[in-house]
Specification:
Layout: H1 2-12, H2 21-37, H3 41-47, E1 53-57, H4 64-80, E2 84-88, H5 95-103, E3 110-115, H6 116-124, E4 136-152, H7 160-169, E5 175-179, H8 184-196, E6 201-205, H9 208-216, E7 222-226, H10 227-235, E8 239-244, E9 270-278, H11 283-296, H12 300-308, E10 312-313, H13 318-339
Helix pairs in contact: 6-13
């Protein structure tokens, strides 16, 4: 009977009665074990970032992408309480920069800047040591910018339709100037030729300055370049903007029609810059970065400074950015193949 009562005492301990030392120790051990099994990612993500963050650019210092990324980086630092440092690693079609990000830890402290050029590289190179879709995770877009199709003010082509009509009347006689073969500007010109149904010669130059000189000399009759490169000549009335390459008109050239409005068929070529991370960076870190970027890109100062160089500052969801990259890879790969541009 006494043995039965001692067993009942131990059972009663779970109902508010005194608990034995053994039971207390067991309860503590169970609690500690359960706590150790809880996922640590949310707690870590809440602290992100705890130290400076690198943004690796596949472009040199001083360019449009560099200037605008530095503006955004400064605002991100203010928002998240840590420095965002821009590192320039140009060359090799973005391969150098991509490798640097992939070789860094997957902790969200090394970010990659991707652009329309990233999508172009997939079709332009025989092979890449990385896959921008499979090896990286999208965070947010940062900005969109159109190409400008411009003629000299001394040119008889006062509208894009004038140029298209002249090209159709004299196949192979007119020239379009762009920077290097395989650049977004160069491929944009090739796409324009295709959608407008014209036979003209695309002449690649070393840089935008050479394109401008060629247009002034009438060596080429149309230039295709970004607003930042053409702006000095546009503002000094040396060049005439005939069309922009997006689907809608831009605020900084609001009286200039889109190429589609001007008769270039379904032509559209909008470039972009965006932030990516390694594929295995935690989703909570991506959410933190996405929310901060979208807030920063709505800042009035950022928007105005971006407009000054021809960029519309605008964030996105990771899902929308992923669709954009895959769509542009297919688009520019087809243009490269049709234009017969030799792969590198």
């Amino acid at each position: 009977m006494g043995h039965f009562n001692s067993r009942m005492d131990r059972v009663a301990a779970g109902r508010g009665y005194p608990v034995t030392r053994r039971m207390a120790a067991l309860a503590i051990a169970t609690s500690v074990g359960a706590a150790m099994l809880l996922p640590a990612t949310p707690a870590l993500a809440q602290k992100y970032p705890e130290r400076p963050v690198r943004i690796v650019l596949p472009f040199g210092a001083g360019g449009v992408a560099d200037v605008t990324t530095r503006l955004v980086a400064e605002k991100l630092g203010d928002k998240l309480g840590q420095r965002f440092i821009v590192e320039n690693m140009p060359g090799a079609g973005g391969i150098t920069a991509a490798r640097a990000v992939l070789q860094a830890p997957a902790d969200g402290y090394t970010l990659a800047l991707f652009s329309n050029g990233t999508a172009v590289s997939v079709g332009l190179f025989k092979s890449l040591p990385f896959d921008p879709v499979k090896d990286f995770k999208p965070v947010s877009n940062m900005g969109y910018f159109d190409l400008i199709l411009a003629s000299s003010v001394n040119s008889p082509y006062k509208t894009l339709k004038d140029f298209i009509d002249a090209a159709k009347a004299s196949p192979g006689k007119l020239n379009i100037g762009t920077i290097a073969a395989g650049s977004t500007q160069n491929l944009g010109a090739e796409l324009f030729k295709s959608t407008a149904g014209i036979d003209v010669v695309t002449v690649p130059f070393k840089n935008s300055g050479d394109v401008a000189i060629a247009l002034e000399r009438n060596d080429v009759q149309l230039a295709v370049d970004f607003y930042a490169a053409l702006r000095p000549s546009l503002e000094s009335d040396k060049f005439r903007p005939l069309a922009t390459s997006g689907l809608t008109r831009v605020t900084y050239l609001k009286d200039v029609p889109t190429a589609k409005e001007a008769g270039a068929g379904d032509f559209e070529a909008t470039s972009w810059n965006a932030i990516y991370v390694r594929k295995d960076v935690p989703d909570e870190v991506v959410k933190t970065l996405n929310a901060a970027l979208n807030e920063v890109l709505n800042d009035a100062t950022i928007k105005q400074k971006a407009i000054d160089v021809g960029i519309v500052a605008k964030g996105s969801t990771p899902e929308a950015l992923d669709k954009q990259l895959t769509s542009d890879i297919a688009k520019w790969s087809a243009v490269i193949e049709k234009a017969g541009i030799e792969k590198r």
